Amino acid sequence: MTRGSSTASVLPFGDRGLVVEFADELSPEINGCVRALSRRLHDAPGVIEVVPTLRSLLLIIDPLTADRNRLAGTALQLLQNLLPDQDGAGRLIELPVVYGGNAGPDLADVAKMSGLTTREAIELHSRRDYQVLMLGFAPGFPYLGIVAAPLRSPRLSTPRTRVPAGSVGIADALTGVYPLSTPGGWRLIGRTPRVIYDPRQHDPILLRPGDHVRFVPVTSAVFPEIPLGSPDLVEPAGRPAMEVRDAGLYTTVQDLGRTGSRSLGLPSAGAMDPAALQLANLLVGNRPDAAAVECTAPGPVLRALDDVTIAVTGADLSASLDGRELQPWTPIAMRTGQTLSFGAPRRGMWAYVGIAGGIAVAAVLGSTATYVPGGLGGAGGRRLRAGDALGRGEGPRRLAASSSISLEIPVEEAAVRVLPGPQDGWFDSASRERFWQAAFSISVQSDRAGVRLNGPAVPARRVEMLSDGLLPGAVQVPEAGQPIVIMPDGPTTGGYPKPGVVASADLRIVAQARPGTRIRFVPATIEQAVDALRAWEETLRELYSE
User: Which residue range or ranges hold the Carboxyltransferase domain (predicted)?
Assistant: First the structure.
């Protein structure tokens, strides 16, 4: 048995995940065991995806078919004789780096804290090859280890609001490269001109876990700007269907999200309320996973370029057709030249417009879902804007359902089922009592990445941890003790404890709760959560068979 496996345990992660957790330390040997186990379990029955992190492995499973107990037993059995991946495995990628100056504004401070000159710090940082221990935080962001002891520097006390793409940073024993211009708290010592994330490419992410990175000092470089989002979509793919006259606040093309990319740091994206999207597609005769328009208030104004059948589901945003109130949750014949618009929000946050035939946009990594922060998917990787034209596909069709159907949309208060999280034991009895009994209100600072909750603090006994895998529905608790529910655009890894995970069937309720809505967590079992998913799948089958 390896040192990494001797203390391993298998922890629950909601109804869609299991976590194999190794010793709580940053170690190349332990990380090698994580990657080795990842390869062995990649094709195990019921496993959809594996996400290796610094010292744990997240198994994303099919909740309706996976045998959790068998998977846990298989993982622990494999660990008995598991050898870590060898350091020589993986590719060697060289990254030229301009150190110091505007490219590395923190180099002098890092050198001073280390008792080195800047020249010595550069030589020490570039002397060794670093292994990609995991990808997370942002698409393609590599966590590289291990930094030489003298160079290890803490994160900034106040993170920068913008770190340029290509910036090379240090955080304690790790070094990394920012793939996008994002906020960040690592100490910046240089910048590479090599692009490690490019959403325009078929394979947008350069590095993989297990690869090695060699930093090569250079004196100057031209740093490219990678555009996120395409120009106006004036020529739609497929048959013309809709023209965007006014884009509204946040209108995108979404489907049920992508799978297989979380190990690369790329979130699933997809509909905030997947059930509402599925019903919008059902009502117009599409497959349940077809691409549709997702919007929030203020909503868009869409003009028909051809006769088309539509359905509006999800939040009640006062939809109207040519100024006359439109009946939601039912198929509507929209004639050429007619205009669909939205008014004051009455209930819920996210509405869906299903279009017969689906929206014709190219799939990226197996999905049409838009991930705006990464400029990926949907209509050119961005929000829709005025002047865009949307085409409809010619996929499998059936007659639209004629009966009206609808889903629960929370108004003032809602209860959601929550399963214990992998760090449930990190919270004392007082915090756990508040977590399960208090009413939390939805914060206005919520978005597609995470829903922030206001209420009594539920601090953990221990605040920070080595980053591990995340899934939508995970309830993270940062140092201040205010929970955050991870949503479809949320990060794939995180370093805060998780006392609970929202049942997948109920995550849409959190998504649809408007700011100020009170949310209560109700303890649930795996069996109850899976039964709820199975009941919804059966409902869909019955509706599609009518």
Answer: 8-207, 263-539
